[in-house]
Design goal:
Elements lengths: L4 H11 L2 H6 L20 E10 L6 E15 L11 E8 L9 E9 L16 E9 L3 E9 L3 E9 L6 E7 L13 E11 L1 H4 L8 E2 L19 E11 L11 H9 L2 E17 L5 E6 L9 E4 L6 E5 L2 E5 L2 E7 L3 E6 L10 E16 L3
Antiparallel strand pairs: 1-2, 2-3, 2-4, 3-11, 4-9, 5-8, 5-11, 6-7, 6-9, 7-10, 12-13, 12-19, 13-18, 14-19, 15-16, 15-19, 17-18
Length: 370
């Protein structure tokens, strides 16, 4: 009797190596936006001296007193690998002698509820494999660290071997049988890609197995990317997945990737005469709107906006009334938000209208980053 399509598929799957089947599971990449394709905040930020999110979504630059940097979403990528963009760090003011507590790293934080399948803290804890493409003129040893919500960490090194050449790196971290990860929307695990570090983090012995955090063991051997304004570092194709081998990078459709990023950061509008939302005047000095978010955010967000004289406008009955900034109104949540104007005058209560931005530098966004 001929096999059905389902029976044939099952038979083929059973004959494949188990790791090959597992590596083709959807959403196997724990990292969000690992191809650096989305940058809601913008494609380049200069004069970076402090920690923050600057360009590429979900990747924070951790900067403590170690030079000045320009971060950008670059189009320099490894040839023939399917990537269109990378994250670039460019040193613009050098620091050849970092103080003890100085550091520079690129970080992504991961919700605990997204990684319960790793079985961390149990006898069945799953190993993780990190893979990525990297390029730099600064050759030598770099550190890639995992750090969990129990203040346990593991650090592994990789080497940039050849100047200004894209190289693929693969690192495997054994499973950790100690310290379960909380099943909630707070930080469960962080990936730290170190670029420079002072003696606080480099004076011990590199912590290559899971242990309680000892600062001196976290980034031992790390080169100093900040030691020259000629230095730059690119990365793309970051994938962190369960198992002891790396699969090909998991490219997601842009709408799926955008939805995942918008859980943490959502830009509504920016620039001149950009519509923001339909609104209604509450009284003579306030107008408000309820924004239904396209995706639930991680938690109730904060407003991220530029504030300046007459940066925004409420338009109603062919009358334009300008104001400086927004604030939250009548309660907030992670699926719908109420926003209102700062105090203005001359409105007619009960009239409908809309909000818009009216300055080239204005933007309105919401952030619930980890």
């Amino acid at each position: 009797m001929a096999l059905s399509k389902v029976d044939l598929a099952n038979q083929v799957e059973n004959q494949l190596p188990q790791n090959l089947v597992a590596n083709n599971l959807p959403f196997r990449n724990i990292i969000i936006n690992g191809d650096m394709s989305l940058a809601q905040r913008g494609t380049s930020t200069a004069s970076i001296t402090t920690t923050g999110y600057y360009t590429v979504d979900r990747f924070q630059a951790d900067v403590t007193n170690i030079g000045t940097w320009t971060q950008s979403q670059s189009t320099d990528t490894p040839t023939g690998q399917g990537f269109a963009t990378s994250l670039k760090m460019d040193c613009t003011t050098a620091d050849a002698s970092p103080a003890a507590g100085d550091l520079l790293r690129i970080t992504q934080r991961i919700e605990g509820q997204n990684i319960q399948y790793l079985k961390k803290g149990t006898a069945n804890a799953v190993s993780l494999t990190l893979s990525f493409w990297v390029k730099s003129n600064k050759t030598g040893t770099y550190i890639a660290e995992l750090f969990d919500d129990n203040s346990r960490s593991i650090s592994k090194s990789y080497t940039v071997n050849t100047t200004n050449t894209w190289e693929k790196k693969t690192i495997t971290y054994e499973g950790d049988t100690t310290g379960t990860i909380d099943n909630d929307n707070t930080i469960g695990l962080s990936l730290h890609l170190w670029l420079a570090a002072g003696s606080t983090y480099t004076s011990g012995t590199l912590n290559t197995t899971w242990n309680s955090v000892t600062s001196a063991n976290r980034a031992v051997g790390q080169v100093n990317l900040a030691d020259s304004t000629a230095n730059e570092w690119f990365i793309t194709g970051i994938q962190l997945e369960a198992g002891t081998s790396a699969s090909d990078f998991e490219f997601l459709p842009v709408d799926v990737n955008l939805g995942r990023c918008q859980r943490y950061y959502l830009k509504i509008a920016e620039g001149t005469t950009q519509p923001i939302h339909l609104a209604m005047s509450y009284n003579s000095s306030q107008a408000s709107a309820i924004i239904l978010l396209p995706n639930p955010m991680r938690t109730t967000p904060s407003i991220d906006q530029t504030s300046g004289t007459n940066y925004y406008r409420y338009v109603s009955n062919a009358t334009n009334t300008s104001f400086d900034s927004f604030t939250f109104d009548f309660g907030t949540g992670n699926q719908a938000l109420g926003i209102r104007t700062t105090s203005i005058s001359g409105l007619t209560g009960g009239n409908s209208g809309w909000f818009q931005s009216i300055n080239a530098s204005s933007y309105l966004a919401f952030s619930s980053e980890l």
